[in-house]
Amino acid sequence: MKLIAITGGIGSGKSMVARIVSTMGYPVCDTDSLARSLMASDPTLKQQLSSAFGPNTYLSDGNVNRPYLAQVAFASDEARQRLNSIVHPAVANYVVQWAHKDTTPMAFVETALLNTSGMRPMVDTVWHVTAPVAQRIERVTARSGLTPDEVLRRIQSQAHDDEPMTGDVVLLNDGQQALLPQIVDALNDLNFRD
Length: 194
Known about the structure:
The protein is an alpha/beta fold and 194 residues long. It has a single domain (2-193), classed as Rossmann fold (3-Layer(aba) Sandwich). 53% of the residues lie in helices and 13% in strands. It has helices at residues 14-23, 31-41, 43-53, 66-73, 77-101, 133-144, 148-157, 179-193, and strands spanning 2-7, 28-30, 106-111, 125-130, 169-172. The protein has a five-stranded parallel sheet, sandwiched between helices. 28% of the residues are buried.
């Protein structure tokens, strides 16, 4: 099976690309949703996060205190790296298991932090979704309630992961070029290489 990463920084439109390929019948693993699920359900992960970030990390109902965790995790590079070092291995391990169970010839994994998470060696091809920074800030502030400065800080914290590398397929989601033809071309290229 071929595993294709759909990646790009916050607000780039990678989730839109993932939804499109999912409606085309391809399996997609969304690592953001997966991370939230594991953080809420995996006892080892819960214990590690509580130890690292304190008792306010979880609400009384057992769910992650997302505003608190976001505030402390994005307060410094060290705190963000600590969060990533706890969550990313659990997510990567799950993705490996998921990919090995799937019997389709092609599956996709949606992730903002392909390099930082250590998942880049796991994938065969990378689709990098990109958009102008101003558009990304506008998209995220509209859906999240974050301020433009908070969004910009998150974009800057992902900058290491948010650059296409040699061999990546770049999908431009700037609202000017239609995404669907770009996706169809990328899929045709994958099928041609088989």
